[in-house]
Amino acid sequence: MTLPTRDEVDKKAVDINNAINYKFKDGDIEEIVAEKQKFRKNPHNYAMRKTLLLKQRDQAEVEGHKEKARELNRQLEELEERAVELDRRRTSNINSISYINQRNRERNLIEAEKAAIVEGEAARKAAADPFTRRACRPSLVTKVRDPEVNDLLKAKLAEEQKKLEAKLKKVEGEANGDAAAAGGQPAPQSQSQSQSQNQNEKTDAKVSNERRNSEDLYAVHDFDIKIDLEVPMSGSSMVPYNRAAQPVKEVTPRRSLNLEDYKKRRGLI
């Protein structure tokens, strides 16, 4: 193998420099793209490729190139078959993904139902805990209750009203009897009143004991406080204040002064 001469080296240097500084033209770019498309099986954009083939086929038919038109028709058929195959693969992937999503959705629903059952059983077996947050809803005034609940509430209120009226009548009768027996003098507490008071105290004590023995911690704070205040029945007499009529002073008419009279009085004229 002979060594290159100086002329050959200079020539290669010039060729390399020209290649580095070469500016590509439109024809060169089209030729490069055509060479790349020749060895590519599937185009990047099927729509653009199909449009280009249709345009070339129509041009070949107009010019009378039958062989070229048949070749372009064959390429169009291959392109359509390839597009159908790719669409079938894509839809199969979508169907498989949809099946997996549906299966996961059904499994999540079953697991949620099982978790709800377990949570309900644990809530029934759990002890009373005052620090646990409870789900509650405010009772709205505009919300209508069920008819059964309304009937129960009305019956309960009527029963309590009857008991209260009977108790008031009993207390009034005992007070009238004591007043008649004592001749209008204040008497000590009667035996029936003391018995009723003792009975009320026993009932309150029983209820308080039941609250203490109850396992529910909220029952400890469930109690009522009754405060009876003795208010005098006789109202304070209001003395009406009559404001004395003040004598009205007689107003004498005043004579208006003009400018000349004013100057005469002041000694200006």
Oligomer: single chain
Radius of gyration, taken over Cα atoms and rounded to an integer in Å:
56 Å
How many H/I helical runs?
7
Average pLDDT reading: 76
* Strand percentage: under 5%
Main sheet characteristics: none
Give me the strand/helix succession: HHHHHHH
Calculate the terminal CA-CA distance, rounded to whole Å: 150 Å
Helix/strand/pairing class, anyone? mainly alpha
* Helical residues, percent: 55-70%
Shape: elongated
Number of strands: 0
- Runs in which pLDDT lies below 50 for 5 or more consecutive residues are 184-189
Offer a quick outline of the entry:
Keywords: Coiled coil. The protein has 269 residues and is mostly helical. It is built from seven helices and no strands.
Structure in words:
This protein has 269 residues and is an all-alpha fold. It has a domain at 16-120. It has seven helices and no strands. Helix 3 packs antiparallel against helix 4 (66-125). The chain is elongated and about 155 Å long.
How would the blueprint of this fold be written?
Blueprint: H1 6-20, H2 26-38, H3 46-63, H4 66-125, H5 147-182, H6 191-213, H7 259-266
Structure characteristics:
coiled coil; mainly alpha; RNA polymerase II C-terminal domain phosphoserine binding
